[in-house]
Write a structure and sequence with these properties.
This protein is α/β, with parallel strands linked by helices and about 400 residues long. It contains 15 helices and eleven strands. The protein is elongated and about 85 Å long.
Length: about 400
């Protein structure tokens, strides 16, 4: 039994000149790309796209998703969609033009049996299909392959999305109302560009709120946000921006090794906002695991190499202790990564990382106190490691229910 997703992508938008809702622009890509990535993030594979016509914008979106490694099936009819799943497969149904939060997807995907996400009738207009006197469909449902196959056999000229919804309701599907915290998450059926303007602002703001380091969250936040907004509508990818960061760190390493300390410091600092912009673009585009850029693995090595090159250059005038301090910083950073193992505990935003270390060194570099700066970096890295180690290994409070 697998989880698949079915996305309707054949309704026209209300923008002048027509066009599909699926191809409405959102965060520099198309609406359907975000739908497909949300479904994939919830564990759905394959993602089945039900279309009647494939304009160039939709073709480009499909090509991008497939290039990312997504298993995407284009179905030109209900029968083709039904053939792509087994009768026992679970099927995540996304309405045409739906934009939902990840929490909505994961919550309904975790349910067993048929389920429908609903909103109160008083809060909705005709773009949300009515279920009963009090509720309308929010655009998200969980069905199974058997229901899709049965519907395809009797569909005739009826609308697939609406017919599936009616049959799901008739099958006694559980209705899950959007209330409480879920009501604050993005949930929208878009009909035109005007529907997405506010949502796009929320998505961009959300990418800023998820910054994992203090440099990108506060110090470079405005610069990174402005650059992200400028690059978002175009074809710039996180990988291309990450390549720029790799280039700056590479030249920084060369400059430090060539005794151009000021140039090396400047290049290292210029690389840090590029890293942040690449990460923000990755969040906006909902980068899949297969898209994790090669640059994310190279940058730590280049950063460590630049630090060692700096220490080596300082050794003739300031002693071998510079190399010891640089090696200590790198060792504690590696140990910190192992100790954290992907966990984010209290105060994690203040822990030592490459961008923070670069900016911490700046005041020492500006005053010529390079060796003192290396000592500060080592102390920062060591303090961060011991803080995380204490958080991970401290004794847990006894469970009151155990009677201990």
């Amino acid at each position: 039994m697998t989880l698949a997703a079915l996305i309707a992508a054949y309704h026209e938008s209300d923008e002048p000149g027509g066009g599909l809702r699926a191809t409405l622009p959102l965060a520099g890509r198309t609406l359907v790309e975000r739908q497909a990535r949300l479904a994939a993030a919830a564990g759905a594979s394959p993602v089945i796209l039900v279309v009647e016509r494939v304009p160039p914008e939709l073709t480009a979106a499909i090509d991008r998703l497939r290039a990312e490694g997504m298993k995407l099936i284009v179905a030109r009819s209900a029968g083709e969609a039904a053939d792509a799943v087994g009768p026992r497969d679970r099927l995540l149904l996304l309405g045409d033009g739906l934009i939902a939060a990840e929490s909505h997807m994961t919550r309904i995907a975790a349910l067993g049996g048929h389920a429908i996400l609903t909103i109160p009738d008083v809060r909705a207009d005709e773009r949300y299909e009515r279920i009963d006197a009090d509720s309308r469909w929010a655009g998200l449902a969980m069905i199974d392959g058997a229901l899709l196959q049965e519907t395809a056999r009797m569909l005739r000229d009826w609308d697939l999305q609406s017919t599936l919804l009616r049959r799901t309701v008739q099958a006694g599907a559980r209705q899950l109302a959007v209330t409480g915290d879920m009501a604050d998450e993005p949930l929208l059926v878009a009909e035109g560009p005007g529907d997405l303007a506010e949502l796009e602002m929320r998505i961009v703001a959300g990418s800023a709120a998820r910054r994992r380091d203090w440099v990108s969250r506060w110090l470079l936040g405005p610069i990174e946000a402005a650059a992200t907004r400028m690059l978002m509508p175009g074809g710039m990818t996180p990988g291309l921006v990450g390549l720029g960061a790799v280039a700056f760190w590479t030249f920084s390493l060369i400059a430090f090794g060539s005794h151009w300390l000021g140039t090396g410091m400047t290049l290292a600092l210029l690389a840090t906002p590029l890293e942040g912009v690449a990460e923000r673009l990755g969040l906006l585009r909902m980068r899949l695991s297969s898209e994790q850029g090669w640059w994310t693995h190279i940058l730590p090595l280049l950063g460590a190499g630049a630090l060692l090159a700096l220490a080596w250059t300082l050794t003739p005038t300031r002693g071998w202790g510079c190399l010891v301090l640089a090696a200590t910083t790198i060792a504690f950073q590696a140990a910190l990564s192992v100790e954290m193992a992907g966990r984010r505990g209290p105060g994690a935003v203040w822990l030592a990382e490459r961008k923070g270390l670069a900016w911490l060194l700046l005041p020492f570099a500006a005053t010529g106190l390079w060796s003192v700066g290396l000592g500060a970096l080592a102390a920062y890295a060591a303090g961060s490691f011991f803080w995380v180690q204490r958080q991970v290994h401290r004794p847990r409070d006894p469970d009151p229910k155990s009677g201990a």
